[in-house]
Amino acid sequence: MGRSLTSAPLGVMRHSIKRCGGAVVVVAMLAVAGTANSADAPLLSPQQMNASEIQLALQKLNVLGRVLYIAAHPDDENTNLMALWANGSLYDAAYLSITRGDGGQNLIGPELRERLGVIRTEELLAARRVDHAKQFFSRAIDFGFSKTAEESMRIWDHDKILSDVVWVIRKFRPDVIVTRFSPEDQLTHGHHTASAILAMEAFSAAADPNRFPEQLAFVKPWQPTRLVWNTSPFFFSNRNLPFDPTGLTILEAGGYNPLLGKAYTEIAAASLSMHKSQGVGSPPRRGARKEYFKLLEGQPMTNSLFEGIDMTWSRVANSESVAAQIHQITSQFQPTDPAASVPELLKLRQTMSGIKDDSWVPEKKAELDEIIAACLSLHVEASATNEAVTPGQTATIKLEAINRSNIPVTLQELRCPLSGEAMKIDAPLPSNELVTKDLSCKVPENTPYSQPYWLRKSGTLGAFAVDDQTLVGLPENPPDLPVEIVLQVNGQELRYVVDTKYRMVDPVAGELRRPLVIEPPVFAKIANSVLVFATNQPKPVSVHVTAATGPVKGELKLALPQGWGVDPASLPIDLKGAGAETVATFTVKPPTQDSEGTLRAIVSINGRDYSFERARISYPHIGVHTLMPPAEARLVRADVRKKGNRIGYIPGAGDDVPEVLEQMGYSVKILSESDVTAKNLAQFSAVVLGIRAFNTQEQIANWLPELFAYVKAGGVAIVQYNTLADLKTEQLGPYPLELSRDRVTDENADVRILAPNHPLMTTPNKITPKDFEGWVQERGLYFPKKWDPAWTAILSCNDPKEKPLDGGLLVAKLGKGFFIYTSYSWFRQLPAGVPGAYRLFANMLSLGK
Q: Alpha carbon of 681 to those of 396, 651, 671, 707, 842: distances in Å?
């Protein structure tokens, strides 16, 4: 995913700097995450600002400048600049990632496509919590590597994504826009160049009321001062070109922040290292660091990106005293007694409240309210003992509040915005005494489930379907079950929002929190995501049914395409309580002829149908996230013949190929380190290495002699694609071969059979051009560019107007067996149920049998 030489993440809505587990994090504001102009109450976190962070937040109150960084993917952002701008310059800094990275690879698990997009979204938000910037997205889907900006724009639907960029600019109102990539570069990912082109077009379109006028019901036109390209010597050295900084604006970005105790380069490295699914962990580069900028549009500059831009309160009418008040409060701030600043902070709040302005005052006032809460050492938390609730049910919420200062605070009211329910309290929060309240909140029947908003409806190849304009651009859903608290401090009413969390205690990790989920009453999961029928013989199909939030009584049925049969037509479901599970088994009969389609599991309860699977994504750096995709499986009836029975699988970075091999009728064993010996491998018909095994398995060099010995004795070894980065050994097979970065991104590119009579093309399945139809996303990636004559090239393909790539499927005879190296993207094609991919992979597994 277009890793930048200089990178850094951004943020989440309005924010205040807080500390979590020893790391400084940004606290998101409610609802319109990233909507700088919203008047919504700030979202409080259980984590507290320390005194240094309060002092930095006070300084930030006096800086009125916004900068928007635009690039294509998660990890494209310059985290060094994000860290500097948000923590040193104290700008309101944000990153607009055009895509969510759904089309990339995954180094930490098997998730791909939309599930990978969720992981990379959360990694960007984790990065933003480190570097304190904000985060936005467009509706564009990362459909895979693109070689031209023209292709990217066509597949994305140019006008739709341009409207999203305009929308973010109009909502965030940046003074300066910065692109990571050049709009004229044709030697990079097409998404990269397209992101810069979109930024250039949006720069002027955002100010034109005739462009996307439907947005003006929510926002006003906005004209940024300038648009610049954040160029780098890397872009030139990577193309063997000299880098000439003449005429560029240069920024020193390697400074140190004593309040945070970190250099901006250190923050940047920690931020970039959140992109763990991409394996871009970075060490800090301490010391001086220069960043370079080239003007693309707007007012000229010589010394500074913000040259000629007023970043003081002078840009807000009738705000003459605000800056002086902030300066006085900051200069008199006592780190050992933050509460001493509260009276003056409240006076400042009154002054802000008297200013009529919708550009800066709402945001600054929300930041001020967070600072007041921090100075009061106010802790407020809302939690539930149940991890989920279904629309129509009532959630019992426990609210805890404690005022750890000597300033009198009154808890006036609790509100549940979702249901409109409210509880009058009107009682003091005594100093350092924990106050608890139980609040019941009925979840309306029409409340949407917690499925990420961009995945609720089916989109196109290039864009998510999001109809609600107010959701466009948000990094994630607004809080599912917020609680609003109303406080009174020195006669002023302050409102805060708390996001209700499911809270539990782990005997090892201690207290844990994760999002409370709004979900349907029942989930169904078909045991296999792809069901392959090599003949017209029926197969048993199992469906796991889980009660989500209470008892479930109804019936389970399967919906199949025309020509397919199922027995029985339905099965009764009777689950006694939340978490109860059962497994139901049907017999599915395929048609006699080749057929493809979708199988859907449906649970009917009281005349209402539910067809959702529950998929949890859980990693330490991003937490637990629940997805609710349709309860579906891919059906494939295709003539797939095979030889052999047992397959050994050496895991790589993570893929779903083993499950698919079992669907083909093989018995698959996942091999551990102790399993990889020639003697043990002899039991297998073939041994398959998962994607990027040579990048991820530390012992791969020690395993190769055992694999070679196994092959010499008559075995078959299949190596799937690897990347050039971080190879654990240069030896990729029994004979020399060298990898390249070459790939074929057009999934419909012509595939030429170079060795039509080779057993790979004839046995046990006769491979024809039809077998290369219906592929998804790409043909292959990181094709070998050189190989020893002992290898036989089987297939050739290329993108339009490019050179043929003959190394995507190489086979070599070794003793009595065969060693195969293949860069075709089987990890995408097999889980997608592409019949021809099954037939050709079966031939590889059956070679020599």
A: 56, 15, 9, 8, 19
Averaged pLDDT of the chain:
92
Q: Name the burial class of residue 410, with classes exposed (0-12), middle (13-18) and buried (19+) by CB atoms within 10 angstroms of its CB.
A: middle
Nearest to 568 by CA among 594, 596, 540: 540
Predicted pLDDT of residue 47: 77
Classify 47 in phi/psi space as left (phi over 0), alpha (psi -120 to 50) or beta: beta
Of residues 404, 371, 472, the one with CA closest to residue 14: 371
Rounded distance, CA 296 to CA 301, Å? 11
pTM over 0.90: no
Phi-psi group of 2: left, alpha or beta (phi > 0 → left; psi -120 to 50 → alpha; rest → beta): left
305: its two tokens: 């990106």
User: What token pair was written down for 24?
Assistant: 């400084």
Strand ranges, E, within 357-393: 378-384, 388-389
Structural tokens at position 849: 């049998």
Crossing angle of helices 158-172 and 149-156, rounded to 10°: 90
Pull the structure tokens for residue 501.
């969390």
Give the strand pairing for 539-547 and 581-589: antiparallel
Q: Read off the pLDDT of residues 460-519 as tens digits, 9 standing for 90 and up.
A: 999 999 999 999 999 999 999 999 999 999 999 999 999 999 988 888 888 888 999 999
Q: How confident is the model at residue 199 (pLDDT cuts 50, 70, 90)?
A: very high
Helix axis angle, 149-156 relative to 190-205, nearest 10°?
70
The H or E element containing residue 700 is helix 700-712
